[in-house]
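Quick start: what a row looks like.
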Amino acid sequence: MSFDLKSLVAARMGENYELHAQHLNPTLVQVQRTIGFDRVYVRAKGAYLYDAEDNAYLDFLSGYSVFNVGRNHPVVAKAVHDALDLDLPNMVQMDCSLMSGLLAEALLKKMPPHLEAVFFCNSGTEAVEGALKFARAATGRPRIVSLKGSYHGLSYGALSITGSETFQEGFGPFLADTEMVPLGDLNALATTLAMRDVAAFIVEPVQGKGVNFPADDYFQQAQALCRQYGTMFICDEVQTGFGRTGKWFAFEHWGLEPDIVTMAKTLSGGYVPCGAIATRRAIYQKTFSRLDRCVVHSSTFGRNNLAMTCALATLSVLEDEQLVENSETVGNLLMARLRGLMKQHPFIKEVRGKGLMIAIEFHEPPQFKSKLAWRLMHKIDQSLFPQLVVVPLLSKHRILTQVAGHHMDVIKILPPLTIGRKEVDYFINALDQTLTECTTFPGPIMELARNTAQLRFGRGKKRPTAARKTGTPQVPAPTNGHRPLNGNAITLDGPVALNGKGNGRNGSAH
């Protein structure tokens, strides 16, 4: 019997959660079902997901910033088909493939000229692991310094420098010789670098957890301190790279010249996983320092033809469709519109971001009833309020968003860079209505809070009322020509804000 993928998918579609409950992660399935996130998406295009009834869902999560060019982009899809049709030799290993050479050449054209060498791997966390090895090999030093509040991945080296106890709980001990300093504290950084045993200082130019970044010249001064004390300066651009912040790379906002840059996510175009490290040639050669060390650091699938093809096509789309520029323009519009909501909604504390990487932070409102609701929710869970905004955004408005991280009142939005004014208008109107409903006490949101508390404390599995509501919101017409369709949706943050536990890269796994 020959394998027929189309028949298999047609026959089994809809069994998604049963299969996951039995063979993968039943805890995740329980959470999704309890809060009503157990939706089955059957296709995707551009900034939209579709269910079996052809209901359209506006995706303001982008697979944690994987789909900067939108889902199933036709240029990337065609490139994959072309690569398969060519029957190229793949992963010969003891050769030098054309596709990886072409991608390295194209990628370095987008980087500062001092970065001259590329290493390919499969994911963000693998890129971070490689960067740490390169830095240690180049300096002969043991220690790695990172920032508090950071996230760099879930493998052991990356997890050891991640500033989140939630992700670390139960997995210690971690990599020795690591330290975290506060973002913005140059004195703390200078003190630790002055010991001259630090191989690398690694930063996310814009932190994925909470969308935090310095408002001053902290990064420039931190880079200068690294130069002074002989420490490698690493920029983790896994989530922020390839136009997400309105520049090709987020370090460009501060005019930085990092010694090593890590990349992944969007580089794959959403098809075949692809990660990369770009660095100075001198640093690269410290690792591959002798003929017998030519493969001392390697990755079996790292230079495979399909990944390289997807990345080449993705770089082309970003440039040809001017998506980096669109990210800056539409991001500025979206932040301006969001800040315009602050007067009507005292729940909103701050709107911050760069490009289309935006955080909406909430705080306790002054009104008496709203203040009571706020305090009750925070007794249940420190991250519950933003989850209670995310849920109706999807159940009533079919917009997929996420909570920015554990123990914070922040929603993060990461739309595809292909969106325009229609999607901005629709999101603003939906958020306006959702926050208006938050002033109702008690109401459907508080009902969801009670049911979420029951899940946390094991007192029931009732599906919340707010997640079951039906409606026919007028989702804006997809820019790719697909018609807007009516129906319901629900969303899920990567690390679900229920008990401070979860997985993902603060909702964006490496």
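That is the whole record. Residues 459-472, 480-509 have pLDDT under 50 and may be disordered. The longest helix spans residues 323-340.
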